[in-house]
Amino acid sequence: MTLRERPQARRRASSAGRRQVVAPPGLSAGQYRPLADEQVRRIHEAALTVLEETGVEVMPSPCREVWRKAGARIDFASNRVFIPRALVADALDIAAREVRLCGQSEAHDLLLGGARVYMGTGGAAVKVLDLDGSVRESRVRDLFDIGRMVEALDNIHFYLRPVVARDVPVEALDLNTYYTCLAATRKHVMGNCFSPEGVRQVVRLGAMVAGGDGALRERPLVSWTNCWTVSPLRYAPETVEVLDEIVRQRMPVAISSAPQAGATSPVTLAGTLVQLTAEQLSGVAYINLISPGHPVLMGYVPSVADLRTGGFSGGGPEFALMNAAAAQLGQHFGLPVYNSSALSDSKVPDIQAGYEKGISSATAALAGSNYIHHSAGFLESLLAVAYEQYVIDDDINGAIMRMVRGIEVTDETLAVDVIHQVCNGEGHYLGHPQTLSLMNRDYYYPHTADRRTRADWEEAGSLDMRERARLRARELLDTQWPSHIPDDMDTRIRAELTFCCRASL
């Protein structure tokens, strides 16, 4: 069945069961600060020293020529570029303080900066844990189906492509990935491209959906993540060419570097943050040299290795600490931050997955990270996603965003008069007008976590949270059919951009 052949009765997205959002996206945080201000300054200063004295490896390229013309010293024998403090300071002075990423509906726009928090999907998983419990390779259809679910899950705020479509040829992957995601949800779509030509194709696609080149630049419906560095401190030439094209197209980009403490960065968490900050500051400086004020997100994606095995670990408390610290560093520089949460080393949606996800998502959000990707769906140390996990993580994110909202202290919420009335025999709190008026505004009620009595739970089938999430995922996949891209636009896109898949959707 293709996207255009779905049953007519299902064409309109179902809104049944949608909840009032008591903690909407974009709330400001900053309640959790693992680093003292002096520690943040020391990391900043150490990163500048690394850039001046250790430098970054940049092979002969137009990129290196940009550095040379800007006054950076180059050691041609080692291909290292040494970046002076003043050059970084100049870049920070002109860098964009806010970046707006737009949805196909304005309700899904993101204004990144300060300590405003948004949580969404991410990653490049190659495996899918299906609802029947089997594991298989990821497909382009998964991008569509996960996106349909994301459209209905209120606490997943953006859609960064979560899986690699293993059934699509590499030369067609960029365009197919972006269009499948855009067709599935009105929320903002981010992905990556493997070539400059892929960037140009996706920009053309985005312009068709947005209503023209000018409309796309005014309201960027798509953006990119670009891993232009290979830690430690080395630029990847082919990826830099893609980054250059993104900047040339005047489109938003998250410059992502992902060192592993103990493997591709120092074993100390502070040392990893120093190296990562040096990589990020070099990227901010480079982009602002070629396009002053360009919309760029600092892409802090620190992780750790389990030093007993050398394997990647996403579920450790060190991961949570460094991603929360990244939010502080971004606020110190005054720049928006893209980083991670909710990775788990568990293979299934179980207790381990729940506690690992909850810890890292809460710390990143409460620290004020702006664009928290990976916050939904992931298992098996970034290798796999599970459909029911998106439902569970949406519930976790909702609780966390309620924590981000914090406690409002006003004359009304101090409730002095209410206390006086109840204590003087005028009714009770449960039935008080204030309780009835605020219960849906101030309280987050989980949609999948269970709060019933044991008797009621047993009467309903004694289902655990994973089983309830599976039922909700199946319901969404049966009912949530997008209709925001009109048939005539879909036909024109498929005719003009011939790499767009047909059969897989």
Kindly report how far apart the N and C termini lie.
7 Å
Structural class: alpha/beta
Radius of gyration: 23 Å
Strand order of the largest sheet: 6-20-19-16-14-11-10-9
Mean pLDDT: 94
Runs in which pLDDT lies below 50 for 5 or more consecutive residues are 7-18
Short recap of the structure:
The protein has 505 residues and is an alpha/beta fold.
Explain what this protein looks like in three dimensions.
By secondary structure, this protein is α/β, with parallel strands linked by helices. Helix content is 45%, strand content 13%. The chain is built from 18 helices and 22 strands. The protein has helices at 37-53, 62-70, 85-94, 140-152, 170-184, 196-210, 213-218, 237-248, 269-290, 317-333, 351-367, 387-405, 411-414, 416-423, 433-442, 454-459, 465-479, 487-496; strands at 56-57, 73-75, 80-82, 99-101, 110-112, 118-119, 127-129, 135-137, 159-160, 189-191, 222-226, 229-230, 234-235, 253-257, 260-261, 296-300, 303-306, 311-313, 337-340, 371-373, 378-379, 384-386. The protein has an eight-stranded parallel beta sheet with strand order 6-20-19-16-14-11-10-9. Helix 10 packs parallel to helix 11 (351-367). The longest helix has 22 residues, at 269-290. The radius of gyration is 23 Å and the shape is globular. The model is unreliable at 7-18 (pLDDT under 50).
